[in-house]
C-alpha cells in the first residue's frame, strides 16, 4: 500500500503531510511568513485539533521550523527533532552548533539565502522547545507510520531523514532538487551520511522486511528517484 503524501510548497520550501491510520504527521513547517497558505493547505486536507499526531522536523533551520510553535498550539501536536539542532529553535540562532564557515556553500545557495532572508525579519523566528528528541533508528510506528528515523548530519549536526517501509526518504536539506544548490556545514559528516545511505538495505525496526530507498522527498525541489 502506497503512502498518502501531500506536498505543501511554501515559497520553495517543502513541507510534507503524511496520512496515517490514526491521523496525520507533518514533516517540516516552513516560514511564518507563509503561514496563511500553510493553514489553508492543512485545512483542505482535513487537519484539525486532535488528528495531527506529530510535527517532525528534519533540522532546525527557520525555513523548516518557523511555524512549529504556532502549529503545536493550534493542533495540540508534539514537536520532535534531533537534539543536535535543538539550540537553533530554542534561541533562533541558525548558526548554533555549526562551523563559523560551512565547508561547502554554492553560489546558487548563497542567492537563495538572500532571497529567504527577506521573508522573515531578523529576530522574528518563533522560538520553542521541542517536546522530545528522536534518535537514529527510532521507529515511528506509535504515531501510525511505518518508518524509521535516520540521523544524517552534514547540512547541520542534527539533520535527520525519515525512511518509510514503502521506500520514501524525506531528507530535509541532505539533498536538493535544484541544480547547483548545496550547503554542507561539515563535509566529513556529509560524506558519512552518504555512505550510510548507500549501505542501507535492511533495518531491524521491521524484522525480515527489506527497506530500500526508492523515492527522495527533499526540502527544496520536486521528489526524485534515488540515484546513489
What can you see in these coordinates?
The chain starts with a strand and ends with a strand. The strands form three sheets. A six-stranded mixed β-sheet has the order 1-2-3-4-5-7. It has a five-stranded mixed β-sheet with strand order 8-9-10-12-13, with no helix packed on it. It has a two-stranded antiparallel sheet with strand order 6-11. It is globular. Strand 8 (147-151) and strand 9 (160-164) form a beta hairpin. The chain is an alpha/beta fold and 228 residues long. It has one domain (4-216): Metallo-beta-lactamase, Chain A, CATH 3.60.15. The protein is 23% helix and 23% strand.
**Broad CATH class:** Alpha Beta
The CATH superfamily bears the name Ribonuclease Z/Hydroxyacylglutathione hydrolase-like
Number of domains as seen in the coordinates: 1
Shape: globular
- What's the arrangement of strands in the largest beta sheet? 1-2-3-4-5-7
Distance between the termini: 25 Å
CATH architecture: 4-Layer Sandwich
Q: Which percent bin holds the helix content?
A: 10-25%
Structural class: alpha/beta
Biggest sheet statistics: 6 strands, mixed
Provide the succession of SSEs. EEEHEHHEHEHEEEEEHEE
Count of strand segments: 13
Instruction: Work out the strand percent.
Output: 15-25%
Q: Counting H and I runs of at least 4 residues, what is the number of helices?
A: 6
Question: What does the secondary structure layout of this molecule look like, with pairings?
Answer:
Blueprint: E1 4-9, E2 14-20, E3 23-27, H1 35-45, E4 52-56, H2 62-65, H3 68-75, E5 79-81, H4 86-91, E6 104-105, H5 107-117, E7 132-133, E8 147-151, E9 160-164, E10 168-172, E11 183-184, H6 187-199, E12 215-218, E13 224-225
